[in-house]
Amino acid sequence: MPVGRNGEVRCLKRRDVIDALADALPPKTIRFGCKAISVEEDPQSMSPLLQLTDARVVRAKVLIGCDGLYSKVANYLGLRPTSVSAVGSVRGLTNYPKGHCFPSASIRMKRDHGVANLVGRIPINDKLVYWFVGIKMSQLDGKYPNDPELVKQETLKHVTGFPAHAIEMIAKSNVGSVSFAHLRYRLQWEIMMGKFYKGSVTVLGDAMHAMGPFLGQGGSATLEDAVVFARNMGQKILYSGQSDEGGQQIMNPERIEEAFDQYVKERRNRIIRLSLQAHLIGVILGSTSSVAKFIAVFILLTVFRDQSAHSKYDCGKL
């Protein structure tokens, strides 16, 4: 989808992005089948101790929490739990073996009534299309199902009245790709004031700035985090020049905190704007208050006049 004069937006499968990133790492860098359940500080070394579900404890020199909406690392830093949005989202993929006829641009179809008030699609290639449906949670009679097949059938009931090609797209979707999520976000004032690092511990991605997917920038913002973080870490002399008993260099904690501080400063303004813009769109889609919707529209038109400016951001080079 063209954006501006020199840019474009592409829709990628999350698995493809993860595989590309993982393939660039040395063998055995990634440990599978484990999950963090708590983070504590070693009273002697002041190093973070990561407790895993398999009872193992990992002592880290530097801990970077990329553990999502329910981040244990964010809890350790004293950040509040993420807040529940008024909007839910159903997402899926539809494969067209003979090819689809949709243009490459991102399309959103919106209406003001019903449980489902938004249907959108973004082609990934000439045969695969990513689609999403916005669910107004206040209009639901009960809970949305979790089983993919039930999610698909429930969604088809709510999209009645949308164009036939949109309904057909959902009906023909790959069941295994269909999922529902009640969206969550981090409050804007906490992003403005939150302490996103402590000692040698910090957070990136949703653990830092969870937001609704209305701008399609969640994954991109996380990659931006990684670039800015790595650049600041690389610019600091992280080692003290001394070695431990095993011959490994001892990291300089002051330099680490300096790098973390600069990383947070660089990212804060960017994610405040992203989060606010996404939140305002969420209010328009999910709120039952006409006043709240009017205020959200007014702020969007006043503060975010260029609706695609967020996609033109340059986080710099490594």
From TrEMBL:
Amino-acid biosynthesis in keyword set: no
Keyword hit for Oxidoreductase: yes
Highest taxon of the lineage: Eukaryota
InterPro entries: FAD-bd (IPR002938), FAD/NAD-bd_sf (IPR036188), MOase (IPR044560)
Any one Gene Ontology molecular-function term assigned to this protein's record: FAD binding
Parts of the chain that traverse the membrane: 280-304
Protein name as catalogued: OLC1v1015818C1
Lineage, opening ranks: Eukaryota, Viridiplantae, Streptophyta, Embryophyta, Tracheophyta
